[in-house]
Request: fold
Amino acid sequence: MDSAVVSLLSAFVLSLIGLFAFMWSMRKGLFVENPKAAGTIFAPGEVGKADDPSLTPSGEARLQQAIDETQDKGRELQQAEDPQELEDRIEADRSTSFPAFMFIGFAVMWLVVGSLAGLTASLKLHWPDWLVGEAWETFGRMRTYHLTAVLYGWITNCELGIIVWLLPRLMRTPLRGPLFVMMGGALINVGIASAIGGFGAGWTAGMEYLEIPWQIGIFLVLGFVCIIIPVISTVVHRKAHEIYVSAWYHVGSLLWIALLFTVAKFPGAHYGVEQATMNWWYGHNVLGLWFTPAALGAIYYFLPKVIGRRVSSYNLSILGFWTLAFFYAQVGGHHLVGGPVPEWLITLSIVQSMMMIVPVAAFSVNMAGTMWGRMKLALYSPTLRFMMFGGFMYMLSSVQGSFEALRSVNRVAHFTHFTVAHAHLGAYGFVTMVLFGAVYFMLPRILRWEWPFPRLISWHFWLAAIGILIYFGPLTYGGWLQGLAMLDESRPFMDSVTLTIPYLYWRSIGGSMMVASHLIFAFHVLVMVLRFGPNRTGAALFNHEPRKLEVAHGK
Reply:
C-alpha cells in the first residue's frame, strides 16, 4: 500500500474520530450556550475591568473609562465568577514563569535572526549580485534560513510559550512536569539551530516547510513529546469544571503538530508525486492546524480579558473549533492544481478550502459581536490593537485563501508572488501580530516587571502593521500581473520577471519596516529583562502582591 493511500486513510480515520468526538460533545450539551464556560477566565471583581499590563496606570485609567462608557451592565451581570479562580491562577503562574520565559526568549532571538535573513532574501530578488561570494549567502539558502527561523523558531516557540503559560491558568492547576517542558524546548531549539547550520552547509531535505532533514527532525519530535505529556497531565489533573475554548484550540494544535511533523518526516515513506502530495498536505496543515488554532486560542483568551467581557457566543467559538478540525485536513491539495495527481484529490481540496469559510465566519461573527460598539477601545489598549488587527487579517487571509484554491484563480496566481503575499498575510498579518499582543500581555506577569517604554509598543505596532500592508498590497497586485504575463503565449517569460521588479522594491520597503519593528520589540524585551529604563511604580505592578495586579491592574 503506497504512502498516498495511507495518508488519505489516516485523514479519513482522524475525521471519523473527530465526528464521534463531535457527537459526544453534542450529547454532553457542549454546544448549548454556556455563559458559565465563557466566564471561567474571570475572577470576582474582574468583569467589566480593564486588564492590559502593557499600559501605564494613567493609560489603563483611560481604557477603563472607555470600557465603562460602552459596558452593557445587564449582560455582564450574567457572568459566572469563581471565588477560587484568582488563587488558582496565581499558583499556576508561579509554576509556568520560567518555562514560558524560556520559550519567549528563544522566540524573540529567532525572530530577529529570521527577519534579517528574510530581508536579505527580499533584497537579493532585485539586487541579484549582492552577497554571492559564498554558497551560504545565496538566495536559496537565505530564504530557507528565514523560513525555518521564523516558522519554527519564532512562531512555534512563541506559541509553545503561550500554551504553557495559559493552559495551567485555564485548568486552574500548576503545570505538571515543568522540567520536562523545558527539556522539550531545549531539544526543539537544538534542532532548529542544527537545521540552520545544516542549510548553510548545503544539507537540506529540499521540500518547502520541510527543509529540516529527518535526522534533525528527530530532535523536534522528541521535544514535542516532552511537552505534550506534561500538558496532557495538567489537563487531566485540572480543577476547572469548565474547559474554556482556548484550551480546546491549544491542546488540539499541540497534538496536531506532533502528528503532522512525524508523518511528514518519516524517513523513506514518501517518493515522487506522493512526496509532493505529502509536502503540501503538511505545508498547509502546519498553518491551519498548528499556527492558526494556537493563535485563535490566544485571541479567545486575551481579547475578552483586556476588555473584561465574555465572548459574544460561546457556541460559535466551539463551532469554529470543530469545523476547523473537520475541513482543514485536505486543503493543501490545491497547490497541486495541474500536477500529475488525481483530479478527485484536487477537487476534494478545493471543496474543503471553500468550506473553511464556515469556521472563519464563526470566529469573525463572534469577535464582531464581542467588540460591537467597543471598537474604539483599540485606541487605548496596545494588546487589544494587536489582537484586533490579527483577527481581521485572519478573516481576510482565510477568505482570500479559499478563493485562491479555485481553479480559475489558481491558474493565474500559482507560481507567482501573489502566493508569497498571501502566505505572509496569514503567517505575519494574522499569527505574528496576535503573538506580539500575547507577549505584551504575558511578559509583565512572567517577569514581574513593567514594560519600560510604552511608546515603543506603539512604534512597534505601527511599523509592523503598515509594513505588512505595504508588503502585501503591491506584491499581490504584482503577482497577479506576473501570472497574467506567464499565461500570455505572445510574451517572453522574461517579461513576467521584469514587470515584478517595482513591486519587489515595495516588498523590501515593507519588509524593512517589519524588521525595524522587530528590532524595537527585541530591544524592549531585553531592557525589560535587564530591568533597565524608567521605574514607574516600583518592582512591576506585582511588588510582592500579585493579587493586586490580577484583580485590578495598576491599582
Summary: Residues 74-79, 539-546, 551-555 have pLDDT under 50 and may be disordered. The chain is about 75% helix and 0% strand. The longest helix spans residues 85-126.
